[in-house]
Amino acid sequence: MSNRNDEVYIAEFKENIDGLCNTGYKIPLSDKITNPNLETVNYYDYHFLQKYSAELGNLASDFQVKGGCAQGLLTGKVQVSSDGGKFVEVLYYDGKGQVVDIRKLQVGKRQTCIHTDYSYTGKPTRIVTNEYSIINGSKNLIVSQIQENEYSKKTDKLLYSALSVNGKKETIQQFEYDELGRIKSVSRGGNVGIVSYGYNLHGWTTDINSRDFHEELHYTDGVGTPCYNGNISSQLWSTSDYGQVRGYKFEYDNLDRLKEAVYGETPSLSDKQNRYNEKVLEYTANGTIKRFQRRGRKDNGEYGKIDNLNIKLNGNQLLSVTDDALPANKYSSFNFIDGANEQTEYEYNGVGALIKDLNRGITIKYDNLNNLRRIDFKDGNSITYTYLPDGMLIRKGYGEKRLSSKLRDNVSIIDSLTTNVPGRMDSADSLFMDKIGMLVTGNTEYSGNIIYRNGKLDKVLFHGGYCTFNKDKNYEPVFHYFTQDHLGNNRIVTDEDGTVEQITHYYTFGGTFNDAGLNAGLQQYKYNGKELDRIAGLNTYDYGARQYFPSLPMWDRMDPKCEDDYNISPYVYCRNNPVKFIDKDGNKVRIPIENQRSELLSYTGAYFQQGLNVDKDGFIFVSDKNIVNEKGSKIYTDNLIEAIDNKELTINLRIAEKVKSLGKTISVSQKGDGATYYINEKEIGSAITGEKHVVYDKNNQPLEQSPADILMHEIFGHAIPKIINADYSTGNAIKNENIIRRELNLKERFENEDKE
């Protein structure tokens, strides 16, 4: 290592010294560094284990390995959590460099052992996870998990997944795929039933169907305004507890930002309209919401405005919010609570994280990695968060609530309730709970997919659901399954016997309906599958990297990867299009489909692999022909697709109705934010076959090109480049594409660069 004077110091490892942060490494600077704080130390051999013999104690043999590791692979990691807890992790590899065994120790508390078997192609086929409590150096088994996966020999796609928890085995997922490799249906364990999926020709999800939940998504049809760019024009859903269809129709602005979500019931959405509307009346240029309205059920039982927000900003950050609508109940609705009337109601630290919110009456502290450390409420509540240096949340604790006489009327003391009911404790741990059944005091611990409440096993999460443990049947595992919509929102929770346990309905921006659904407090994983924290009106979803507050809606911290969307405020949620996009971890906006390229390929690039087709109404779809023209269009196209993928652009293409007056002419023009195609009915055959013959442009000049060639030129040469940069909308198409590739630092693969 070196100092500011460019003096180089050699770190020397010695067997019999503690060294810097107990690593065994000694450098001259060690004498000058007093009381260093160990956060993370990575190791690439196994000699470090002897340095932690005191922590390992009687468990040392579990972590030892003969021989060394000379492959440069990470062999171990020691981390200290934000509350001072020490975590030791050791990794072991097979001959292919695949991790086959992991040993994790939370010193003085728990040990986790994970073994993984792999297929020939490197897919995990069997994962065995055992978690033990550590009491006086001895191990006691808490949970044993075995997950078994089977993959297709032809496609390597997952066919089957079974999970055994403490000896009870369930087939949690069994997949069926269509001929294009998309998920057709998923069979789940017990008596839960099948979830089936439908798609349109573009690969966009059109329907999700199960016994208790049905969803329809409309793009160019339905009751909303048709959208040809992948935006959803209307959404319909129904659940087994309610005899009527619910839904939204959506309106967007010219930047694809959501303007309004209009609620209704019946397939036409003509009944009980406007009950749960959300409307954005004004955006800033970079997408921050300035005026926002929300409707819902009020305390008097009537439906109307529960939010009418005017938001003042300091740049991209909140300054103050006023709400002149009569609020609904604080603990039952997701409406905004206007709890302050100050010129400055929000404050941020130097790295753009929210540290004060006067409306919710909270102050927030972070650790040196900008992870949440503590939230203090003005009414005496508090929440503490414990993270590992790598950003993993391991503990969340709730402080004691100071009850006022008014609040005490809304609170009950829970006695003799089993820990097997999520969010509830044994009588010995009687806790105050609010009206919706969420914990007010206590703590939650996270150990991988295993969740503890107040030190007691609460649930085991798995893909598609979770496991609880029945105290009345010797803690026998009980499997519960999620039924999700196209955004991964947990709509239905069903137990293994097929009994519906929870139903949740959502506003467009993620809040839950306050008067509809079933058993809201059963489990806390809801919108996008994220954990919801409603303690004392916090009302946030934990996405990992950030917390999302759907009432405004806005993130609490800047986007860690905001340079990817430099023209959008780093506090904006999902580019203000939460109907179409998701953000799985608070780091990256995605389209919730298997092939994230499909939105681009569906309208444009697919025919270079499978051929171009045009239906009788003049709309493009895919056939099985291959079209590669004489200029090397496939190479050209692949490069541009790569560029688009890197920029994560949304392609807006408008396909106009066929124009019969043009006679034997195909005319394609680029204008606005996409391309407009005028395809005569007589030319459909030529577009399908891709044959070359004389066609005429809009100036009636002959062109020795097929309709497919012309479409390719206009789309990839002009329309898409303009979306990337308006300066690239005209001129030589190939030159435009290569300029873009150079700007994105893409590998040069087109040999005839800048040539006609």
What does this structure look like?
- By secondary structure, the chain is mainly β.
- The chain has 4 domains: 1-36, no CATH class; 37-151, Lipocalin; 158-590, no CATH class; 598-743, no CATH class.
- Helices cover 10% and strands 37% of the residues.
- It is built from 9 helices and 50 strands.
- The strands form 9 sheets. It has a 20-stranded antiparallel beta sheet, with no helix packed on it. A 13-stranded antiparallel beta sheet has the order 23-24-25-26-27-28-31-32-33-34-35-36-37, with no helix packed on it.
- The longest helix has 18 residues, at 707-724.
- It is globular, with a radius of gyration of 29 Å.
- Mean pLDDT is 76; it is low at 1-5, 401-440, 594-698, 703-708 and 744-756.
Q: Summarize the amount of helix as a percent range.
A: under 10%
Which term fits the overall shape? Answer: globular
Alpha-beta content class = mainly beta
Number of helices: 9
Number of strands: 50
**Alpha carbon gyration radius:** 29 Å
The description of the largest β-sheet is: 20 strands, antiparallel
In percent terms, what proportion of residues is strand? 35-45%
| Overall tally of domains | 4
Distance between the terminal alpha carbons, to the nearest Å?
53 Å
Mean pLDDT value? 76
Low-confidence stretches: 1-5, 401-440, 594-698, 703-708, 744-756
Give the secondary structure arrangement, pairings included.
Layout: E1 12-13, E2 25-26, E3 40-43, H1 53-56, H2 60-63, E4 76-80, E5 86-93, E6 99-106, E7 110-118, E8 124-135, E9 138-151, E10 158-165, E11 168-177, E12 183-187, E13 194-199, E14 205-209, E15 213-218, E16 234-239, E17 246-252, E18 258-265, E19 278-283, E20 289-297, E21 303-314, E22 317-323, E23 346-348, E24 354-357, E25 362-366, E26 372-377, E27 382-387, E28 393-398, H3 405-408, E29 412-413, E30 432-433, E31 442-447, E32 450-453, E33 456-462, E34 465-470, E35 476-484, E36 490-495, E37 500-503, E38 531-533, E39 540-542, E40 547-549, E41 554-555, E42 582-583, E43 589-590, H4 598-605, H5 607-610, E44 612-614, E45 620-622, H6 633-647, E46 654-655, E47 666-671, E48 674-679, H7 684-689, E49 694-696, E50 702-704, H8 707-724, H9 733-743
Parallel strand pairs: 46-48
Antiparallel strand pairs: 1-2, 3-4, 4-5, 5-6, 6-7, 7-8, 8-9, 9-10, 10-11, 11-12, 12-13, 13-14, 14-15, 15-16, 16-17, 17-18, 18-19, 19-20, 20-21, 21-22, 23-24, 24-25, 25-26, 26-27, 27-28, 28-31, 29-30, 31-32, 32-33, 33-34, 34-35, 35-36, 36-37, 38-39, 39-40, 40-41, 42-43, 44-45, 47-48, 49-50
